[in-house]
Write a structure and sequence with these properties.
homodimer; about 400 residues; alpha/beta; five-stranded antiparallel β-sheet
Chain lengths: ~400, ~400
């Protein structure tokens, strides 16, 4: 029996409530000028106070040294093996905009990009054109017809969209057309197995027609496709852990991840303030709440130390509102670290706190990488987060006689 | 997918450089008179300064409570499962003297020993006779012929040699002739399965003839064989982790271990000073350097607390020279602990430090068992060392979307 199967086997339904606040990209590294990380620098009295009242530790999202994408980072926190259950980017994006995927459908993430006159990529995100501008372009692409397959194009946000390929024999074993660098041409999509040859051919026809349809534009005059994938079949959190779980996330991809494990995605607007209000409004209806804060990761990815500090201060200001709900277990962590000095996701373990009447006390007095390293929970894999949450919410019965 | 396979799957080649200094037997225990361990006692300002600038932790070489031999201790540090890939002592010794083993060959470690007139062992190492004296004895044994097998005898160093047994049906499932204690007779070699019966018989014939050939001598008048083994087939570090790895080790066995994972063994003399010079001379040619310091383990094995302290002070004096190379990642640890008070390898976790621009800072100010216990890296299996090294050298790409 796998460890998480063991946890599932002793799960029981109770009225106790768990809130998991994921501060995306929470962990950081010191700024070379100050020697202080983003968390060290930020003025976050509410998070520090909560850390002082909590059991703290550091989590490894996937494995020490491994830098996770958002998919594995979140699935681990939800109690699913992030390596066994790898989710393609195309599927994530599709789920995030409420597309229903059939098991055979192949989803691909798409970007509008900009090519120069020689056909070389000058901007992989087409100046991050607005949804207002990109939506009609998606309609244009949606009209493309390719023999032997059905396809549909769906706007996501800004320069991003999803393409769904359907039809008998459609296969997701494809290389990507996005070279992930500038100054080169988009790549031809190639099959990874003979079974994927027809799909690769069809996708290349689609890309060629898309280029033709966009040819008169200065920006957003081409597309890049990546993350061809099919939806994995995961048991719901209800079936597996007996949790009635709800997700509150402004960004589509995170809603998509939550749907994958059967969470109910609560309808809401775009700000974190609305997320918190949504959680409060639906607090009676569920017993597990995943609430997602994006700002810290976005600033970290931009390499903007000051903005990440500001994002952390922003989320700090909402902590009292969340605490007012008085959940039996309140956990805060990230799906991965995004140190501003690295301007990207990283492998560094992520600060973690668990506040509960039944948590082991420790001497941690603030939420930071350094402080959490000496917390009572030590350093542990992110797949232990859900078991710990359920245990502290008294939702796990005794194992063995 | 196993964790280390996952790491291998995201490995990429970059010019960044990693140095792994293995201080053999690094970890220790307090002397009962002072309450201080060898590391606490030694004056090691360079190691302490490095620890202060590094992320620290404690590693379990194989598993908590398990005392590892040098084989598992090193293989784990090189990123290979030390239990799945157990290497026999005979194979290690053979590789360390540049013998090429075919997959079917069986290698055995040999000792010259001394028997009294009653045939009982009085010295398992024959007074550690010199290589000068033992090499001609090996030539003598090499001439022995045993029906049904080919054999060859190769001097290693001092009282130690290797016997290679070859032929169809040769089997390594054999008990050892070395009883590993004094005042008893050497043991008969027994087959561990019916398939090994013929080999056991042949080996016993060889031992009897060796005894006869040495019968006129006062010391080194008998041999002891142990560690009958075949070479495991391991992927190289180049194939598995895309690392161009080099080994610098004065002692044959450690060179043998490095060869097993495809490291290039750099030619050199016998002192640690020469090891450091060799590393510096070849620094441009590789991206992963394993450098081995033997003195701490040797003193610990002898139960000589003061000598182990001195050995640690010796290695400390070379740290500045290694730091001058300015590697992207500099790691120091041991393959196991060898507390002088136990006069042997032990199960205690081993201090570990990792110095890199991207390491998480912690409050550890010195290299010691106690200080490292509160380091940012926590306590972790030695198989995580290579993934951490590669991550901090930016040699691992993101996992999942």
């Amino acid at each position: 029996m796998m460890d998480l199967d063991l946890v599932a086997s002793v799960a029981r339904e109770t009225p106790s409530k768990i809130i998991l606040l994921v501060i995306d990209g929470l962990g950081g590294l010191p700024n070379s000028e100050t020697g202080k990380s983003e968390l060290d620098t930020a003025c976050i009295p509410n998070l520090d106070q909560l850390a002082a009242e909590s059991a703290c530790g550091l989590i490894d999202p996937v494995f020490p040294g491994i830098t996770p994408g958002s998919g594995p980072g979140h699935l681990a926190l939800f109690g699913y093996d992030p390596v066994q259950n790898l989710v393609g980017r195309g599927v994530l994006e599709a789920l995030g905009i409420d597309l229903e995927l059939k098991p055979a459908d192949v989803a691909s993430r798409g970007n509008f990009c900009t090519l120069d006159k020689n056909g070389l990529i000058t901007d992989r995100r087409a100046g991050r054109i607005s949804t207002h501008e990109s939506a009609p372009l998606c309609q244009l692409l949606d009209r493309i017809e390719v023999p032997g397959m059905r396809l549909s194009v769906h706007p996501v946000r800004d320069h991003r969209f999803v393409v769904i390929f359907q039809g008998s024999g459609i296969n997701d074993g494809l290389t990507e057309s996005d070279p992930q660098k500038l100054g080169v041409s988009p790549l031809e999509v190639k099959p990874l197995s003979p079974q994927a040859e027809a799909t690769a051919q069809g996708v290349n026809v689609f890309i060629a027609q898309a280029k033709d349809a966009l040819r008169c534009r200065d920006v957003a005059n081409m597309i890049l496709l990546r993350g061809f994938s099919r939806s994995p079949t995961l048991p719901t959190m209800k079936d597996r852990y007996r949790l009635k779980a709800a997700a509150i996330a402004a960004y589509p991809m995170y809603r998509g991840l939550a749907k994958l494990v059967g969470m109910e995605v609560l309808p809401m607007g775009n700000s974190f303030e609305e997320e918190v209000e949504t959680l409060a409004r639906h607090y009676g209806e569920h017993d597990f709440f995943y609430i997602h804060f994006k700002g810290a990761d976005a600033a970290g990815e931009d390499g903007d130390f000051a903005s990440k500090v500001q994002a952390l201060e922003e989320v700090d200001s909402f902590i009292p509102k969340l605490r007012e709900l008085n959940p039996d277990v309140f956990m805060i962590t990230g799906d991965h670290s995004t140190p501003a000095v690295l301007a990207g996701h990283s492998w560094h373990p992520v600060p973690f706190l668990l506040c509960s009447q039944w948590a082991s006390p420790d001497d941690v007095k603030e939420l930071s990488e350094r402080a959490c390293a000496s917390g009572a929970l030590g350093r542990f894999p992110a797949t232990h987060v859900l078991p710990l949450a359920m245990a502290h919410a008294l939702k796990l019965t005794k194992f063995g006689a």
